[in-house]
Amino acid sequence: MADTAQYRVATATRTSRVGLLVLLAGVVFLATTPWWGGRAEMRLVVEFCYFLALAQMWNLLAGYAGLVSVGQQAFVGLGGYALFVFSIWLGVHPLLALPLAAVAAALFAIPTALIVFRLRGAYFAIGTWVTAEVYRLSFAQVSDLGGGSGMSLPIGVIKAVAGSRSERELVVFAIGVAVAVASTGIVYWMLRSRYGLGLTAIRDSEAASESLGVNNFRTKLYVYVLAASITGFIGALIYLQKFRIAPDAAFSLIDWTAYVIFIVVIGGIGRIEGPIVGTIVFFILREFLADLGSWYLMILGLVAVVIMLRAPQGIWGLLAARFDLHFFPVQRRLYLRDGGPPGSP
Amino acid sequence: MDWVNAVIQGVLVGGLYALFATGLSLIFGVMRLVNIAHGDLIVLSSFLGLAIVSGFGLHPLVCLLIVVPLMFAIGYALQRGVLNFTLGPDILPPLLVTFGLSIIIQNALLEIFSADSQKLPAGALQTASLQIVEGLAVGVFPMIVFACAIAVIAGLQFLFYRTALGSAFRATSDDADTARLMGIDNRHIFALAMAISLAVVALAGVFLGMRTSFDPSIGPGRLIYAFEAVIIGGLGSLWGTLAGGIILGVSQIVGGKLFPGADQLAGHVVFLILLVVRPRGLFPRAVD
Amino acid sequence: MSLLETSGLTAFYGDFQALFGIDFAIAEGETVAIIGSNGAGKSTFLRSLTGLLANAAEAIRFNGQPIGDLPANRIVGLGIAMVPEGRKLFPSLTVEENLKIGAYSGREGGWSVDRILDLFPFMQERRRTPATALSGGQQQMVAIGRALMSNPELLLCDEISLGLAPTIIKDIYDALPAIQEAGTTVVVVEQDIQQAMAVSDRVYCFMEGRVTLEGPPDELSHDAIREAYFGLKGAA
Question: Do B182 and C52 make contact, defined as CB atoms within 8 angstroms?
Fold first, then answer.
């Protein structure tokens, strides 16, 4: 055995520093949209940001914790409705209602988790879907929230965000960019913390990780509730931008989960870069194919199926393997004290 | 008498739900695959039925003679050509591939048949009913569906526990590698299981189309009913699946009577309660 | 001509190489034992022979025919049956169903459920019992019976004495002559060297994926076996 003092454990690599710069440039590009783009570009960027954030959360669940949820629309819808309930019924300032929506989503996530965690694997997936359906159908029953046809934010609430339309759009835009950056950062931070190791252990083998002292149930619960709460925040933001909510749209499987799953699968599941690449590809495809209507969804589904069958590591996985790219190094690599990793050329 | 009527209706609807669920339960039992596109394949069968009924002017029950073998063949090809490549220790590939299939089928149906509501014309069968006692009549068609559900489950039970093919199904489910040592081609066995599953789906889809109106978007809802019936009954138990379907059907119809407009919600809530109380279902399989 | 012959057989689990060029031959009617410690590659070798691990076609010849690239489900029909390590009975099948599924490949021959019941009479009363409800020794006998049901020319037995009491091991090996008389050639993989030497005409010793010793039991010295088995030079 070699002397351990010869080795050091590191996670950063040279490409990760370059990658960080590329990402930083990307963020600056998006964040400066108000200076170079118009109203339409700003809306597009906000949409890009919340899809990216939703994808990061789904990837955290499915790609890292092994919790393949098909029911994240539950928390988008809950967050959206929470915005309406807090700001209309309780008179809370709409911007304060955003974090409160995150709290509300987290509170709903706990009992939801206690139920769906009884199911394993694919049955867990459908279980989350059932609970999302329960929320959708329940909100459709509440006539004070407009029942099945939904309701709009009163003009007073909208004006409370900011006086003028352009100022309101700027506020929503800023929060959108912040949410995308923050959700990526949170996933990165989680994976580098001791939870990250625990999560990877659980994904790889539930039994083994338990025997090594990882509390599977608690770790999964934390991750599930965290993802739900951020998803709830995003939901509230989405409906602060849309002004109008209805159960079928707010709890839409296609809009808030199917697209997000396709984004992550296409980009690369189980990698932080995956959702970023996936969201970019998703928006490019949409730009070119959205006019095709249902063909667009068929093509998207087909691309995801082919990628899952032929290259399950996704586009980013292919690129990373080809060029040894790791923008967000979460792997711990062993290095010789004064050189590269042992065994590398 | 109203309540008795509601319960009987619920039980009979439960037969249809059991047909939805049987195929799902079967392929999970044989290859641990959960087919997210299951509901959409049910609706695909309804539309195949519609195309044949309107194309050749056949009665929907007669069109089963074409739709069932067709779906059997589609099932075999789908498993052999696509889904066999997703099986393995990782649950993500089968889940995400069938999820993708679900979206593809839904939108293909939308493209071909539009979003309009359709119905398979059942003729006199639509309204025929049997008077049991004063004020209590039971529809003939729902009873046929229920009888078919029992027949299908009894038939599958026989196939699984009394035939050589059934032994091969069970052996492959237990341990695919050792089954291969016996000369069993597990890819063929899996494909046959999916073929049988989709043959049952074909039956369910045509019955669904004769009973209510359908459109390309209703597949996921049927998947959820099927899933709930399977979990309530207990994974791997075919008769349990029938019981699960009946419980779901009764919950929906009685729940809808208690709280108008909340029939679906009532079914889901009863399912969630049972999931908390009996997480392994009513009739869990002894060997898991 | 050998019944079965391998030349330069290799096997990999991902990047890990488990076998490094195994040359092996067995003649018809012969009984060969393969010995070696844990991880020597014995089970991997049998998995390769049965097709559970793929190989180049020419690496394995059976009756002169290249079979290295055939899938497992085709190989049993050619006449190679395996009693897998740990028995691997099908828990959802009864004893009788386990035996019957052994005949799935449809190979013609003299074995039948009744003849297996003659060989292992205890099964008569346990026909309808779930196979995994039997004792370990009884399960091992069912696993042997299941393999025989395919009427093999070559029977591969992987660690059939593992974890069993000595009297039961004797019962199991007592069935071997009847199997050989039926014209079946037998390969036994054993960790128990005494047992292996007692039943076999020839012994192969494996170590770290290579054949380190080969020959008839009475021509092999203790020291040679020790060295081939443990890789230790000289006497301890």
Answer: no
Exposed, middle or buried: residue A340 (CB in 10 Å: 0-12, 13-18, 19+)?
A: exposed
For the entire predicted model, the pTM comes to 0.90
B224-253 burial: b if 16+ Cβ within 10 Å, else e: bbbbbbbbbbbbbbbbbbbbbbbbbbbbbb
In angstroms, rounded to a whole number, what is the distance separating the alpha carbons of residues A236 and A79? Answer: 5
Find the mean pLDDT for residues B257-285. 89
Give chain C's contact residues with B (Cβ, < 8 Å).
50-52, 71-74, 76-77, 81-82, 84, 88, 90-93, 97, 100-102, 104-106, 130, 146, 150
Half-sphere exposure at residue B21, Cβ-oriented, CA atoms within 13 angstroms = 35
**What is the interface pTM, i.e. ipTM, of the complex?**
0.91
DSSP state of C130: B
Sequence-distant (6+) residues with CB within 8 A of C82 are B181, C46, C49, C50, C147, C155, C156, C157, C158
**Inter-chain contact A133–B264, Cβ cutoff 8 Å?**
yes
Contact B223 A126 (CB under 8 A): yes
Domains of chain C, first to last: 4-230 (3.40.50.300)
Q: What is the pLDDT of residue A332?
A: 62
Number of folded domains that form chain A = 1
What is the residue range of A42's domain? Answer: 8-327
Domains in chain B, ordered, with CATH? 2-277 (1.10.3470)
> What is the rounded distance in angstroms from the CA atom of residue B211 to the CA atom of residue A75?
34
Residue of B167, B155, A131, B222 whose CA lies nearest to C96: B167
Which of B167, B173, B185 is closest, CB to CB, to C101? B167
Tell me the two tokens of residue A208: 């083994």
